[in-house]
User: What shape does this take?
Amino acid sequence: MDTRVHDDPSHAGTASSVAGAREAIPISLIINGRQRHFAIEPWVTLLDLLREQEHLTGTKKGCDHGQCGACTVLIEGKRINSCLVLAVSRDGAQVTTIEGLADGDRLHPLQQAFVEHDALQCGYCTPGQICSAQGLINEGHASSGNEVRELMSGNLCRCGAYTNIAAAIMEVLDKDGAP
Assistant: This one.
């Protein structure tokens, strides 16, 4: 499968697949604040584009069925399971991954809170947990630990760090004065 990434949209072209010549679909995404242009097959998921073409491997492939939340990223500030989204369906969208949350060497407040609250063990789910938490904050529906736990229930942690994850999110909610 030949999938091409382009910084210049004038170079977007066709791609050939093992099954024969096929037209690639040109799309454009703003990924972590940077405009990117691609020519991709229509079946490429956003998760695979991020990991394989952009080399943003913080977004994890867990179950690949939208059940674990390890692949959670933000599209236009809303949390989504990137394994369930075809990249072509998000042409023109703003995508934020775990790599796009920090400000250089300065951790995002959620990243810092996860460290301070020891809200990770193996760390595999952590990028999806943090992106989901940022989406939860953006939604403005959580104001208690119970609400945070309920609204984060789509993100699984096989290590069981849920108590610390909720505490880290609540700390950021309390600091930001969010609901």
Summary: The chain has five helices and eight strands. The helical segments are 46-53, 109-116, 126-139, 145-151, 162-176.
